[in-house]
Amino acid sequence: MRVRTAFSIWLATDPMDMRADTETALARGIAVFGAAKPHCTYLFANRRATRMKVLEHEGFGNA
């Protein structure tokens, strides 16, 4: 069993196309936030702010 001790949630303020896959979302997170940090959750909204995409980076892969 693994217990996370610290994590962060980052919210992108620019809209993102919800058709994007996880690799595109991760690339967008790197472009917006500078780097994909382990144990961080990234939130992206569409242009109308009616949908959200959540990307959690575990440090060795995506979930």
**How many structural domains can be distinguished in the coordinates?**
1
The residue-averaged pLDDT reads 82
Query: How many DSSP E strands?
Result: 3
Strand content: 25-35%
Characterize the main sheet.
Answer: 3 strands, mixed
Number of helices: 1
Distance between the termini: 17 Å
Spatial strand order of the main sheet? 1-2-3
SSE arrangement, N to C: EHEE
Helix content: 10-25%
- Cα gyration radius (Å): 12 Å
What would your notes on this structure say?
The protein has 63 residues and is an alpha+beta fold. The chain has one domain (8-57). It has one helix at 22-33, and strands at residues 8-11, 40-45, 52-57. Strands 1-2-3 form a three-stranded mixed β-sheet, covered by helices on one side. The mean pLDDT is 82.
Summarize the structure.
With 63 residues, the protein is an alpha+beta fold. It has one domain (8-57).
Task: List its traits.
single chain; 63 residues; alpha+beta; three-stranded mixed beta sheet; 1 helix; 3 strands; 19% helix; globular
Question: What's the layout of helices and strands?
Answer:
Layout: E1 8-11, H1 22-33, E2 40-45, E3 52-57
Parallel strand pairs: 1-2
Antiparallel strand pairs: 2-3
